[in-house]
Specification:
The protein has 232 residues and is an alpha/beta fold. Helices cover 35% and strands 27% of the residues. It has a single domain, classed as Rossmann fold. Strands 6-7-8-3-9-10 form a six-stranded mixed beta sheet, with helices on both faces. Strands 2-1-4-5 form a four-stranded antiparallel beta sheet, with helices on one face.
Length: 232
Amino acid sequence: MIELSNVKKSFGSAKALQGVNLKLETGKIIGIAGENGSGKSTLLKSLAGVSPIDRGSILVDGDPVSRKHAGRIAYLPDTDLFYPYFTVKQLLAYYNSQFADFNEAKAKEVLDFLEVPLASKMKNLSKGMRGRAKMAATLGRESRYYLMDEPFSGLDPMVRGDLVKGLIRFTDLERQTLILSTHEIREVEVLLDELVLLKNGQVLAHRQLDEIRSETGMDTVEWMTKETKAGA
């Protein structure tokens, strides 16, 4: 379980997270949603231990989060942080050298499923193909937690559909948790167990997807729009 208690994070005078309290259970696929500037990326970076918080606490399986949790948390940022001259095969070799939990055979299986050629250089791949390669490298880790920041951003619907299928096929929810931020809620709604809605660095709502549908009669996007306006 990941537990956040009164988490605060600022960048100068800008308050990115303002007293966030959350409990994220193991074995779930959890979406983090909200408008631009709501704190989604900051929240994921804080969960991954790459952006220290100012106040509060984040516990991962009972331990305070830090960079030492890299062995339990696989983090996929929204930016390209790899060497452009790497081939896809070299990208996997790099991950293998950095992470003890990296399963190269699994990563290659994901690449094959997503039809990404090993010999291609990252800089020569389309954005969609780079997204597939990044996801394969991330899912190649046998981590307890996968954190993915906007993994579908800027990709066409066909690519997004393939990546969603890859997440379903290569995540073991008996022992793993997937937490992802996305603007593409309609694309991933079929995946999600829960949704955390942020606004101005605060949690507006944290609900089960089944509850949203059964209690409100709305689809997820309609519900998000209503909650966001109500929280203005």
